[in-house]
Design brief:
alpha/beta; five-stranded parallel β-sheet; two-stranded antiparallel sheet; 15 helices; 17 strands
Length: 511
């Protein structure tokens, strides 16, 4: 009987005051942890967990990181204190030995993203004291979370350590995983693996696909992590985090082509108006002769004449194509002379125009039409006029565009990582977030939440920040709700989701 009275009292406390008009009572479900225990929550991951946004890490963005939002919701279900290694300002950027090693954040000035004024004040060598619940480390790949010395300040300048982790690592030899396990977490979140392909993707594929190489110590920063290495590391992470029966939530990885960094710049951006009077000259003196010569060699489909009525594709170098430099040199020698013909052959031996199968990087936008330099021309010299306009009269280079063969390598690796993530999550009984499906939807139909339609459109879609990769404040809130849905489903908890309308789309210039 006493139990019944307690239940009736609990139910009565969940009723919201009825309206004067219809006296309808609305019952609000009490918040419960279910079978989870949120007393001690730690979050492991990369820049997404850290709250990186607009090309930088800064205080207000850190406060809105998805682990911080989750911790706030966990607090209503018995969650304990959750701390973050906050940066020193809202400017963003880092200092090391008095030198700026990471620049300030971006803001939208009404026409384009630009850097905020001011200089960074956060010094890598100035340690902040934890322990910290948010262990998100911008730039971290999967294997970095178990790498001793990844937080050693002395190794930052040489690229052997991470400057963000160096600020809050418990020691010069500790690992992110060890710092997490030392706190004896009762619940954890793990979203890692994006950087295992992202560096390759954002560099235009200039890294190495390390599939088959089981030694991460030999990897470069822009390389693709071997899927077997990823699976082994991921299993070690989850095994360590669940050693004391902690429960948790993990997320898989999206395809890079759902991020605005890879979809904002169209493959055919050269309008007749943009080309102006040069259009006819380009056709007569460059595109026409190139197409004629390439057709003779069975590669006429690489180049088409520029259209005077429709948008035109970019001129790029595709390193996956057979190199026809020698053939072009021979073909042009009678009219151009041996030296000039050899130069044309070197420049256009693997040239073609972009197609819908390519991904032009967001950073390439500023390169289109610019003059190549000795450093970025691919030939070690600054080409003279008229071959001095990137994407128009001179091919954009590997660092500017992801070609189909590179996109395929990224997809294969991502798919393999996701298989491992799901299998390990299922084996350990963890909640699972299908982040890939969320990103797919943002880039196609959009997602409606709290009367807002969120898409992956750059600047105005509401989901992504101005760097084209990391979420906006509202994007992080959307991610948080997806994590909450997964946790509620797996552990029968009744955590509340957040109102997306309370989170801004972009940060202003001044915070």
């Amino acid at each position: 009987m006493i139990k019944n009275f307690k239940w009736l009292l609990l139910v009565s406390l969940t009723f919201v005051a009825c309206t004067n008009d219809d006296d309808v009572l609305v019952m609000e479900e009490p918040v419960s942890a279910g079978s989870a225990n949120f007393t001690k929550y730690v979050a492991l991951g990369d820049s997404f967990a850290a709250g990186y946004s607009d090309g930088a890490l800064f205080v207000e963005a850190q406060k809105g990181a998805y682990p911080n939002i989750l911790a706030q919701q966990f607090a209503e279900a018995g969650g304990g204190a959750f701390s973050t290694p906050l940066m020193g300002d809202n400017i963003g950027g880092l200092l090391l030995g008095g030198n700026v090693i990471a620049g300030q954040r971006l803001y939208f000035n009404g026409s384009a993203p630009v850097a905020v004024s001011g200089a960074p004040t956060t010094n890598v060598a100035t340690k902040v004291t934890g322990p910290f619940g948010n262990l998100g480390v911008p730039g971290a790949k999967s294997y970095h979370l178990i790498a001793a010395g990844y937080g050693n300040v002395a190794g930052v300048a040489a690229g052997l350590a991470n400057p963000y982790y160096a600020r809050f690592a418990t020691s010069a030899t500790s690992t992110v995983l060890a710092d997490a396990v030392a706190q004896t977490p009762t619940f954890f979140s793990l979203w890692i693996g994006g950087n295992d392909v992202l560096g390759f993707a954002t560099s235009g594929g200039i890294g190495v696909n390390q599939t088959g190489n089981m030694n991460p110590a030999t990897y470069g920063s822009n390389d693709i992590t071997d899927p077997t290495v990823f699976a082994s590391v991921y299993n070690s992470l989850v095994t360590g985090l669940t050693a004391n029966s902690a429960k948790g939530v993990v997320a898989n990885l999206p395809y890079v082509n759902t991020l605005p960094f890879f979809t904002t710049v169209p493959v055919s951006p050269l309008s007749p108006a943009t080309l102006g009077a040069n259009l006819s000259t380009l056709n007569a003196q460059l595109y026409g002769p190139l197409k004629q010569a390439l057709t003779v060699f069975g590669a006429g489909d690489r180049i088409n004449l520029l259209s005077a009525t429709a948008a035109n594709p970019l001129l790029i170098r595709d390193e996956s194509l057979p190199n026809l430099s020698a053939q072009l040199t021979a073909a042009f020698t009678p009219t151009l002379g041996a030296q000039t013909a050899a130069f044309y052959g070197a420049v256009f031996g693997q040239a073609r125009q972009t197609t819908s199968a390519d991904l032009v990087l967001l950073t390439t936008q500023s390169a289109i039409g610019a003059a190549p330099t000795a450093a970025n021309s691919g030939l070690g010299i600054a080409p003279p006029a008229p071959l001095n306009s990137f994407g128009i009269s001179y091919p954009l280079q590997d660092m500017h565009v992801l070609i189909p063969s590179e996109i395929a390598q990224i997809k294969v690796a991502t798919d393999a990582y996701n298989v491992s993530i799901k299998a390990i999550a299922d084996a350990k009984g963890l909640a699972f977030v299908d982040a890939k499906a969320i990103m797919d939807k943002l880039s196609t139909t959009g997602i409606v939440g709290n009367n807002f339609t969120m898409t992956s459109q750059f600047v105005f879609g509401g989901s992504f920040s101005l760097d084209g990769v990391h979420p906006s404040p509202r994007g992080y809130a959307l991610i948080s709700n997806a994590f909450i849905d997964a946790i509620n489903s797996k552990y029968s908890s009744t955590l509340k989701k957040v109102d997306l309308g309370k989170y801004r789309i972009l940060f202003p210039a001044s915070l």
